[in-house]
Amino acid sequence: MRASGKLAVLLTLPWLAAGCASTVTPANQAITAVDETSGYRRINNDNGKRIGDTLILLSFSGGGTRAAALSYGVMQELRDSYVQSDNAEVRLLDEVDVISSVSGGSFTAAYYGLYREDLFTNYESAFLRQDVQSTLVRKLFSPGYWFNSAFSGFDRTEMAIDYYDRSIFNGATFADLEAQGPPFIDINATDLTSGMRFTFNQDLFDIICSDLSSMKVARAVTASSAVPVAFPTIVLENHSDQCDISQTQAYQILTEKREFSETQEQLVENMLSYRDTESRRYIHLVDGGISDNLGLRTMIDRLEGLGDDRFHVLRERGIKNILLILVNAAVHRDSFIEQSPKKPKPGTTMSAYIDSQMKRYDNETIERMRTNVEHFQHIADQENLPLKIFFSEVSFDHIQLSDANSYLNNMPTTLELNNNEVDQLIAAGRMLLRHEPSFQAYMERNNGRLAKEAMSETEICKAFQYEGCADLAEE
Prior knowledge:
Blueprint: H1 7-16, E1 29-30, E2 54-60, H2 64-79, E3 81-85, E4 88-91, E5 96-102, H3 104-115, H4 119-128, H5 132-140, H6 143-152, H7 156-167, H8 174-180, E6 184-191, E7 197-199, H9 202-207, E8 210-211, H10 217-224, E9 234-237, H11 249-255, H12 262-273, E10 282-286, H13 289-292, H14 297-306, H15 312-317, E11 321-328, H16 346-382, E12 388-395, H17 402-409, H18 419-434, H19 437-445, E13 449-450, H20 457-463
Parallel strand pairs: 2-5, 2-11, 5-6, 11-12
Antiparallel strand pairs: 1-8, 3-4, 3-13, 6-7, 6-10, 9-10
Helix pairs in contact: 2-3, 2-4, 2-18, 7-10, 14-16, 18-20
Keywords: Hydrolase, Lipid degradation, Lipid metabolism, Signal
Pfam family, one: Patatin
Active site: 103 (nucleophile), 287 (proton acceptor)
């Protein structure tokens, strides 16, 4: 999530334009009635999809192009992996039910949600191998930008939205995303006021009486990746005084009398607070990495929302496997602070502080997921369900070769990497998932195999400039 490199130029511009805060008309349209049978919501997302006996949930973390390329490598590996499901061989990629994403990971998630197989033919040229950051900086200094900024409130965020919309997402809206059917794409941003997660789905937009279908996907992705200060907030207008949601299923769930965890209570309270238009007339959104840099808490909420008393749903659907894959592009850079008695510079101190806090929060999130997996596996065993839950983490920490580990962990958080770096990240995504112990256990349980055309171990090694991969990834 942290800005670096050329993006630092953006950070200086608020000083150049001091006193010129922009005001942009919010792009979300109001609705006067809620129709729960339409709109981009999970319950409407099946679209005739064959259910199968496996639920696959993916989480794509933040981390700029580094996160986008790593998650793209994982998607390639899922495309080339096959398992037995309901007496038929299926491709794992086709079995994915939900993708939750934040920041850099949202580019991959949204692109796949919209364009499916074209991800593997167009995504690299459309985004991964583009100098996105340099392009944004050039646009920032163009006369056209300053003219629009002065007279129309066209700020840096709107400039990014326009660029992503034209160059990456081709004007697509959430109506286009809905038309594609599953998997459901949870694009996550952060509510700046509350610090809570804000997920772009119609159930949440019902609460603010707004239509998500007409909103550009590029706007949601920009909100998910809008690093504070570098990019002004994405602003939504709260129209909750224009429709009644008291009879909707989502509202009933939010207000029903049952025990919630402390975190769930906070989330519910924040969502219900949107009904107060006097105090919350406008919602300001920033980078989703602030509230959850892993994109994992949406998945945790889905598991906890299932609840012990609703576990029968899995039995009724004949679910035998739940595969949870976290693509964690977080890095742990080499630190030289402890090698010198000199006091670090303010920027170095702040960077180290942010990194340490994010690492602690990420670790707590992962531990919370593992606790939930163990809890529900215990219930499944008690209920004699043929269910196994697998939690796989794709992380640079699992690369054993020290120089490769150090190289990947010191990659910057930018929207611009060179081709060699992109190649290595794609290969790392494939290799790390392929060798991840929990994923291997899932593949073995379901008679999995790798397609003949899949990237070979030798090709993966070449991406890292090694002759052999025996010690590259742990198993």
